[in-house]
Amino acid sequence: MKRILVPTDFSEHAANALKAAALIAQKTKCELYLLHLLEIPNHTSGTTTGGSSIREDILLIKKANEKLEKIKEQPYLAGITVNTSVQYERAFSGILAFNKKNKIDLIVMGSHGTSGIEELLIGSNTEKVVRLSEIPVLVIKKEIGELKFKKMVFASDFSPETKKPFAKMRDFAAIFDANLFLVFICTPNSFKTTLDAEKIMSKFIKNYDIQNYSLHIFNDTNIENGIVNFSKAIDADLIGLCTHGRTGLAHFFTGSISEDLVNHATKPVITFKI
C-alpha cells in the first residue's frame, strides 16, 4: 500500500475518515491524497449564463485550497506526506477517475451510517463508490480514537471468486496484527448444514498461509442481520466483505449487502471488489 485517497466535503464525517487514514498511513508509511470535488459549473465562457462566473469559480477553488492547507496543519497529520487536489467533477465519478490517474491503493470515506444520505459525500455517493470501485474502500462511521483494528470480520460464501478479495483482506489484517474471524452466514433462504459450511470454509482457508484466524457459522434471518449481529457478538472492530459491483437491473433486483452495511452498520466497513 503506497497511496490512500480521502475525499472530503469538509464535514465531520470526512474529518473522521481522514483521521483513520492518517493512522493507517503512519503504520504503512504511505502518502495521503486529500480530494475535494466541486459541482460542475453551468457556464462555458467568461460570462454569467445562469450559473456562476469564472471569477466566482476561481474564488471557490481558492477557498477550497485554503481549507485543505489548513487541514494539512492538523497535528495528527504530522510526518505524513499529504497531497491535495480540488477538481470540478461529480462526486463518485470524480473519485473513481482520480483513483485510476493517481494509482490509489485504498479509499477511506466518511459515512453517517444511519439515515443514508447526508452532505456531499455521504449516503448515495458513498454507496456508488463502494459498488463501483476497483480498489478497496474503507468506510468510517464515527471518530476512531487509536484505530484498534484487532478483531476483523470477513463475511463470505467462500466461493472461488472470493479468493483474491480475501487475500487483500488478509494483507490488510496483517498491517494491524489483527485476528481474522471468518464467518459463514446461514439464513432460511441460503441454508447450509453445519457440516457443509465447515467443509466449504476449511477447503477455502487451506489456500492461504495465514495466522490468527478462526472459522465461524452464524444463523440469522438474513445475511445483513447476520453480519451485523455476529460482529456485535464478538465486539469486532471492522467488517470486511466482497462486492460484485452489480449495476443496472441486476443490481436493482438483487440489491447489495455491502451498500446496506455501509448505511446501517455502526462498525467501520471495508469492501473488496470481486
Automatic annotation (TrEMBL):
Task: State the name under which the record lists this protein.
Answer: Universal stress protein
The lineage is: Bacteria, Pseudomonadati, Bacteroidota, Flavobacteriia, Flavobacteriales
What organism does this protein naturally occur in?
Flavobacterium sandaracinum
Similarity annotation: Belongs to the universal stress protein A family.
> Which part of the chain is the UspA domain?
1-141, 223-272
Tell me which SUPFAM superfamilies the record gives: Adenine nucleotide alpha hydrolases-like
The protein's matches in InterPro entries, at most eight in alphabetical order, are given as: Rossmann-like_a/b/a_fold (IPR014729), Universal_stress_UspA (IPR006015), UspA (IPR006016)
Pfam families given in the database record: Usp (PF00582)
